[in-house]
Amino acid sequence: EQGLQLLELGGSVEEDYIRIARCFEATRQRCCRLEQDGRRAREQLARVEAERAALEVKLKHARNQVEVEMKKRHRAEAELEKQERKLQLVLELLMREPWGNEALSREQCSVLSALAGRRLGAALAPVRRSSAMDESCQSLLSHSDISYDRTEDDV
């Protein structure tokens, strides 16, 4: 609009030149503000990208740590099952052997019978946790429940 008004040259030439100069100055100031805004936006983008890269590194480390801990957990659970099977076999051996009943007192036999019955049930059932909190942690830490995308690990 200002450009069209300037072309109409309705007043003196000096006034027209002053209006043109003011219009150029306003445009120059607008360009300077836009350039500053662009510079600030680029700086903010650089900061955000650096933060994102740092977070990606942390995420990669966390994923690796989860994987290591899951492997440790699986090894510990396998060892626990192995030890429970060994204990079950020893208890069954003690209960079935004739010399075992003679060498043990009645109280020891009843304790072993109760323990053998409880262990047999535990050996047949899946591994149980001792508390509700452990069960909830088990479900939270189950490797089948954890899913993450490894496609971005190479970034």
TrEMBL record:
Keyword flag Transmembrane helix: no
Chain segments annotated as transmembrane: none
Molecular functions per Gene Ontology: GTPase activator activity
Coiled-coil region list: 38-97
Tagged with keyword Membrane: no
Gene Ontology biological-process annotations: mitotic cytokinesis; mitotic spindle midzone assembly; Rho protein signal transduction
Keywords: Coiled coil
One GO CC annotation: midbody
Signal sequence range: none
Protein's name in the database: RGAP1 protein
